[in-house]
Design a protein that fits this description.
Order of helices and strands: HEEEEEEEEEEEEEEEEEEE
Distance between the termini: 30 Å
Number of helices: 1
CATH class: Mainly Beta
Radius of gyration: 18 Å
Number of strands: 19
Structural class: mainly beta
Helix content: under 10%
CATH topology: Neuraminidase
């Protein structure tokens, strides 16, 4: 990625980690349309992370003291989101990573000890979500990256060795997501639709990235036919909708990054 972000922001969606294997490259064509800058008033940095079908944007911002806060942006009207258990020192705080169509938020907060915790926010009522196997030391813990309209989430926990492990499901009923073709600790989930279909990416033993579709534990590898097959190249699936349309990126054999859309995936 060409833009430097705080480490915690790279945990927004597991697939973001897979991007690290892909070299930065200029886009083949510029996207046209009306761009609107999103800056939370008083913030030193603003990260827009997710948007629902009603155009409500969520994300995180950093204040002048280095503390993170979540935000909700409703057509330029900002509301701050702070989990009550979040730390208030530099490098701590709250980030909102997801919003579904009914306005339920998911994200991560870092406590006063530097440990990450997932949270779900239902109209100001916060529920902490910790994976049972997550470590509790600084830099370890749980983060939520996506929430569908039925309340299922995807996320990542960092175990006692600070290794990332992805999971999906409802709190208390989590399933570990590991593509059988992946190198250890290199499966990254990015989205789950209302039917429970999950997409993401994994890195194989040769350092090549592959997208995947997970239908209740049945994995299908997703490789754009134009993707390169050397280390640092390959495919990442970022998102899918309830019609099964998948979007993502691939890096070709020249190291150039392209977006893709896949319909009627089998």
């Amino acid at each position: 990625m060409s833009v430097r972000m705080p480490h915690r922001m790279l945990l927004i969606a597991g697939a973001a980690s897979a991007l690290a294997v892909m070299p930065a490259a200029a886009s083949a064509a510029a996207a046209h349309g009306r761009y609107t800058t999103i800056d939370v008033p008083g913030a030193t940095a603003t990260f827009a992370i997710s948007v629902n079908d009603f155009g409500v944007v969520v994300g995180g911002f950093t204040d002048a003291h280095g503390v993170s806060h979540g935000f909700i942006d409703r057509r330029g009207v900002f509301a701050t989101v702070n989990d009550p258990h979040a730390g208030t020192a530099s490098g701590q705080g709250t980030t909102v990573n997801a919003i579904n169509e009914v306005g339920v938020l998911g994200g991560v907060y870092i406590d006063a000890n530097g440990t990450q915790h997932g949270f779900i926010d239902r109209r100001g009522v916060f529920t902490t979500v910790n994976h049972a196997h997550a470590g509790t030391a600084p830099g370890q813990g749980t983060t939520l990256g996506f929430i569908n309209d039925r309340g299922a989430v995807i996320g990542t926990y960092f175990n006692s060795r600070s290794k990332p492990v992805t999971f999906a499901g409802r709190p208390g009923q989590f399933t570990t997501i590991t593509d059988p073709a992946a190198a250890p600790f290199s499966t990254f989930t990015s989205a789950i639709n209302d039917a429970g279909v999950i997409v993401g990416a994994y890195i194989d033993a040769q350092g090549v990235s592959h997208g995947f579709i997970d239908r209740r534990g049945a994995f299908t590898t997703l490789n754009d036919p134009l993707a390169g097959t050397a280390s640092g190249q390959g495919t990442v699936a970022f998102a899918l909708n309830n019609r099964g349309i998948i979007v993502g990126i691939y890096a070709d054999s020249h190291g150039t990054t392209h977006g893709f859309e896949l319909n009627n995936a089998r």
